[in-house]
Amino acid sequence: MMATNGKEACGVNGDATSVSSNGSNGAFAKKSHSAEVNGAATEASCHPKLQNGGAGRPERFTFTSEPTIEDIRRMQAEFTDERDWNQFHQPRNLLLAMVGEVGEVAELFQWRGEVAEGLPDWTESEREHLAHELSDVMIYLVELAEKCRVDLPQAVLRKMALNRQKYPASKVHGSAKKYTEYKD
Length: 184
Hints:
two-stranded antiparallel ribbon; single chain; mainly alpha
């Protein structure tokens, strides 16, 4: 899907069709009434809604609901199978490939100083490049989890529960300290 900066997408009332990874309207295509920016709906960015009756921050950015992590796993497995690449996609190799892709993401931020949320100073080409690199990281992460037999969505739920115990909001609100630094 071609990315937009959100400005061109504002006010779009027509259908936007997402495209599967192979460029066709395949099994994962979905009709939507909102335009997309790097695969995410832009309604909030076009018309920022304020919470608390108009006071406060705009609503949080949200991802589209499709494809799911399982859809991504299945697409990548099919892609790998079609090319007979499973012989190369062992956990160590996938981890190293993912680290390389994280390095490519870091390279995009290198020497920029602080970068504002939403990347307002980035060009459309820079945003699209970031979307590609982040997608590479996610694809390798999902495939690594598959090869290690880690049910990633369930692992995230367990980890979030653990994080809530380690970082109770009442104790850590507004602080960036590690949980080991807090006193009971």
